[in-house]
Amino acid sequence: MRPLKVLLVSPEVEPFVKVGGLADMVGALPKELAALGHDVRVVTPLHGATRRLGEWQALPDPLGVEVGETTHWARTWETTLPGAPVPVYFIEYNDYFARPEVYSEKPDNARRFVFFARAALALCPQLGWQPDVIHCHDWTTGLLPVWLNTTLRGTPLSRAATVFTIHNLEHQGYADKSLVAFARLPGSEFRTDSMESHGSVNQMKAGLYHATKLTTVSPTYAKEICTPAGGCGLDPVLRFRAADLLGILNGIDTVSWNPATDPALPAHYTANDLAGKAVCKARLQEELGLEVAPDVPLFGVVSRLAPHKGLDLLADALPFVLGRMEAQFALLGSGERRLEGGFRAAAQRHPGRVAAHFGYGGDLARRIQAGSDFFVMPSRAEPCGLTQMYAMRYGTPPIVRATGGLVDSVWNFEPGAGRGTGFVFQEPTAKALFATIRSAGAAYRARPAELLALRRRAMAQDFSWRDSAAKYVDVYRWAVAARTGAPLA
Ligand code: ADP
Ligand code: GLC
Predict the structure, then answer these.
(1) Which end of the chain is more exposed for a tag (fewer CB within 10 A), N or C?
(2) What are phi and psi of 460, to 5 degrees?
(3) DSSP state, residue 267
(4) What burial class does residue 132 get, using C-beta atoms within 10 Å of its C-beta: 0-12 exposed, 13-18 middle, 19+ buried?
(5) Domain map of the chain by residue range?
(6) What are the Cα distances from residue 442, in Å, to 293, 305, 327, 471?
(7) What average pLDDT does this structure show over 115-139?
(8) 165-210 pLDDT, tens per residue?
């Protein structure tokens, strides 16, 4: 089979700019696809927060983007993903993207990403490069398949198949009806089986109706989103397209996330020799102002502060945990300020036992993953989740709620049975979380040998992109066959 030409279109890409796991995915999958021999490229906006890593070159010609009333002219920069032959194109348009935040609260947020998605399409002919597949990610790219099916239909570019990946159904990119005209799409697309929801434009829905194939980031989440309980209002659309929807568990970048080499860690270790992990714990306790106590179980959290992460359950459980057992907590959280309160209070009331840091801290995230004994992730919903996989790779059993990708990646510890890679609880309640933290604490005290075996099993899991990248290649070929009517030779 001939190699594929694939363009990934994403609002964030690690290591250039990252808000959450979407960036990790788009920074890692292309490397694996390139290693399989495909011509894979990435396009993303040049945000104010983008780091200019490596060599950058501006493309000679300005890029005309056909949105709004006049053509907008953007500049394109090109570099490669560090360590891989994957071109990355940055669309520079300062009116929209020269801001500190990636996703904006300002009213022009929807237009910013319509502009970006349209720019991604304009880039292909400018490069003289015809993709077989355009791989879209979440609502910010939702209108891209619509142009290919409508205003661009019949152009060479419209032969490209689209694969639309849902990373999180909760954010759907709602906007005023005027977005249809801004996008220069036909007014007839403003209907319930295309872009319209509740009298507004819903960009996620547009992508779900128009993309050739759909994927999401775990098999369990693929099932959950087809139900009213997990569908965020779009479950009828997902049931309608269920035959075209596949759940593929994300991998992780096992080169970057490796406790034997991670430069952010004060000591290194492997599954065979975990001595360095104890050093990481002691240094983390020092760094965060926790009591340096090797025998007290340390529970780590690294998370965006968003309601679906379930950290309110942890905030509610904390007073009981701290009142009834020896335990320390190290929390790193970024996002909604209103979710910080419970942790700030606990840190003030229990200095030396609870450390709470707010904001984004790339290296500190890694030191918490390595230095903790357990990793807490009580998500109410979790499409895939990467941090639990990083935790397992760093020998830190995760404590997770049974939802989405957490079901597909963490096996529950069964004392005496020699099985499991973490601790799984069912009900999204502070009580269930508390009980599970207690049993992890009990295993820490009473079953050290079993816990060591559990850490080693967790570290031995293969979360690399190898299998999942092969699944994406299958989906790409499936999409090309559906779009063009013939499988690729
Ligand atoms: P989500 O994308 O929903 O936030 P994931 O588990 O898929 O959840 O990915 C989160 C990614 O963001 C991980 O790479 C994690 O290390 C990182 N991360 C989350 N919060 C922070 C933070 N406050 N500081 C540094 N990294 C963070
Ligand atoms: C989203 C989801 C998260 C997933 C990530 C990468 O941010 O919330 O569960 O791991 O995307 O796909």
Answers:
(1) C
(2) -85, -5
(3) S
(4) buried
(5) 5-251+466-484, 275-460
(6) 17, 28, 11, 40
(7) 98
(8) 999 999 999 999 999 999 999 999 999 999 999 999 999 999 999 9
Per the DSSP assignment, residues forming a β-bridge with 163 are 135, 213
Contact predicate 342/318, CB 8 Å:
yes
251 lines ligand 1 (CB under 6 A): no
Q: Taking a C-beta distance cutoff of 8 angstroms, is the pair 136, 106 a contact? A: no
Q: Which pLDDT does position 335 carry in this prediction?
A: 86
Q: Is the CB of 365 under 6 A from ligand 1?
A: yes
Q: Residues with beta carbon inside 6 Å of ligand 2? A: 20-22, 25, 167-168, 217, 250, 382-386, 405
Question: Sheet of 298-305: strands edge to edge?
Answer: 354-358, 328-335, 298-305, 374-377, 398-401, 423-425
For atom 7 of ligand 2, which residue has the closest CA?
Answer: 21
CA quadruple 342, 345, 351, 357: dihedral sign? positive
Task: Look at residue 124 in the predicted model and tell me its pLDDT.
Answer: 98
CATH class of the region 275-460: alpha beta
The 3-state DSSP class for residue 377 equals strand
Over residues 366-392, mean pLDDT:
98
H helix or E strand, kind and range, residue 358? strand 354-358
What is the C-alpha to C-alpha distance for residues 308 and 300, in angstroms, rounded to an integer?
A: 18
Query: CA dihedral in degrees (406, 296, 291, 376; nearest 10)?
Result: 10
Counting ligand 1 atoms within 8 A of each CB, the residue from 18, 304, 406 with the most, and so the one to mutate, is: 304
The reply to whether 5-251+466-484 and 275-460 are identical in fold is yes
At 250, the pLDDT band (50, 70, 90 cuts) reads very high
pLDDT tens across 334-357, in order?
988 888 999 999 999 999 999 999
238 lines ligand 1 (CB under 6 A): no
**Which CATH superfamily hosts domain 5-251+466-484?**
Glycogen Phosphorylase B; (3.40.50.2000)
**Amino acid identity, position 98:** A
pTM over 0.85: yes
Residues 6+ apart with CB under 8 A from 346: 315, 318, 319, 322, 329, 354, 356
What letter does residue 239 receive in the DSSP assignment? Answer: H
Please give the single-letter amino acid code of residue 7.
L
Q: How far is CA 358 from CA 4, 334, 338, 414, 455, in A?
A: 42, 6, 12, 34, 28
